[in-house]
Amino acid sequence: MAYEDLLKSVEESAHDKEAELRKTEKAAVAEIQARAKKQAGEIRQAQIDETERSIATERNKLLYLTKAENKEDLIRVREAAFDEAFAQAKTQLGSLRNDPKYPEIFTRLLKEAAASIGDGTFVVHVDPRDEALCTKALASLGQSAPVVRTDITTDGGVVAGLPDGSVVVANTVESRLERIRELRRNEIHAILSGA
Q1: In the chain, where are the structural domains located?
Q2: What is this structure's pTM?
Q3: What's the rounded Cα separation, in Å, for the pair 30 and 179?
């Protein structure tokens, strides 16, 4: 019987040990599962945070690019309006010779150009259509023997300079329009932008 009791005791001890090992194993598995679950949650949250940062960065980049494109489009539209305004002005000034006041305007343009050159002999370049008007205007201004060359094409006005070409003053409709265009560019763009 002692042998049976010993066997029974060993068997019970083995069952108790097995139960204890199973309990320890269950606790270890539960702890591993809890740690794994926690790590999975942290990894998931890190991925969500990274994705949100990435989306925010991409969104900001797209907003910046869209704003830049819109600004470029607005600049192009303003520049087109600016160019159109000066194209219309050039078209209107193209018929300046037909205006009854053109001789007076021409004389004033010639006088301004001559004053810019100073005293002495100078050369006047005019459109062939203005040759007679130039001769008459020079006489009315009392200018002494300037040389008149009909070698330019313009909507009106003159180009004057020293005979050696060291000083040249363009006082044509086109040159004045271009000067105004450059001088008033910022002012006109400010008006177009509503500033």
Answers
A1: 1-93, 97-193
A2: 0.60
A3: 86
Cβ partners under 8 Å of residue 27, min gap 6? none
Among 160, 182, 183, 185, residue whose Cα is nearest residue 171: 160
Q: Distance between CA 132 and CA 135 in Å, rounded?
A: 5
Flag whether pLDDT at 87 surpasses 80.
yes
Q: Where are the extended beta strands (E) located within the chain?
A: 123-125, 147-149, 157-161, 168-172
Residue 29 is predicted with a pLDDT of 83
Quickly name the fold that domain 97-193 has: hypothetical protein PF0899 fold (3.30.2320)
**From residue 135, how far is each of 12, 31, 82, 83, 128 by CA, in Å?**
138, 110, 37, 35, 12
CA distance 185 to 46: 54
- Mean pLDDT lowest among 7-11, 21-25, 89-93, 132-136: 7-11
Which of 166, 134, 168, 138 lies closest to 149, judged by CA?
134
pLDDT confidence of residue 144: 66
State the average pLDDT over residues 102-119: 90
Q: DSSP secondary structure string, 111-155?
A: HHHHHHH-SS--EEE--GGGHHHHHHHHHHHT----EEE-----S
